[in-house]
Known about the structure:
It contains eleven helices and 14 strands. The protein is an alpha/beta fold. Strand 5 and strand 6 form a beta hairpin.
Amino acid sequence: MIVVLRPDATQAQVDHILEKASQLGLKPHISRGVQKTIIGFIGPEDVLRVTPLDIFPGVEQVIPVLSPYKLVSREFKSENSIINLSGDIQLGAQRIIVMAGPCSIESYDRLRSIAQQVKSAGATVLRGGAFKPRTSPYDFQGLGEEGLKYMKAIGEEFGLLTITEVMDPRDVELVSRYVDILQIGARNMQNYTLLNEVGQSSKVVMLKRGLSATIKEWLMSAEYILSNGNFNVMLCERGIRTYETATRNTLDINAVGVVKEKSHLPVIVDPSHSTGRWGLVRPAARASVAAGCDGLIVEVHDAPEEAYSDGSQSLLPENFEGLMAEVRTIATAIGREV
Ligand code: PEP
Ligand code: MN
């Protein structure tokens, strides 16, 4: 349930509500908005029948949250969440954040060359996998910690923030030492041990939608992370499996609007995995920005035919530059910027 506080509620009144709720087994999450301060309580709502919180001094209203996800829902927080990625870079505000880089970190030199090019085209975050969730155990599995070291050094050299996938709860601490944003891949969207682990971390998390997950299941997975205390979560639509085989996945462009309606969390679109073909990445990116996403994550490679993974969906740097110019125009048309 959500407890909306009166604008003149005193700290003593708030403390009293928190103390009472804790005795009732309710876990509080305070959200101080511009207009209102609200406290979301997670726990058995039937206790309210015995101890109605709306009679407490300082309380304006008590609202039950009807959706199965609570902290993630718009009911819990009506304003869009803005995530501070670094001192002056915010996600979920006016500016659309672009993350770009290779699917996998292949070598220091290759990552450095791609990073330099995506930076000059206007990317803010460098992407690249060091632990790769490959369909075949015989395919390249990633450089592991060595790759993370390249990522950190190159990110610092070019002033790029960094994002990489973490697949194993035991690696969360290790990966967190090297990068700014933890990526939970589509195949791990319902790995609840991993979700709990990143939920206890203070790092920003990007949660990709599962291959065949409904939006509700995806939001429930995000709820795991928030309920562990980490509210710095962005959601990433990366295409879903449908009957269509012309593309690797089907970009669910509706998901952008649906998630914005149901949740306050920022939404990213991955036009690379959504389409699986480099020639479709630019149109998918344009559509995503027009649909209202807060960021894009794009695979870029300077020799896609030699890429260790996902070469067929990787943009050449000059094509990525073209994408940036197009999405800038679209962003301006809808009152945003890139
Ligand atoms: C990736 O970003 O390289 C990746 C493996 O994505 P997904 O988890 O969406 O398949
Ligand atoms: Mn990939």
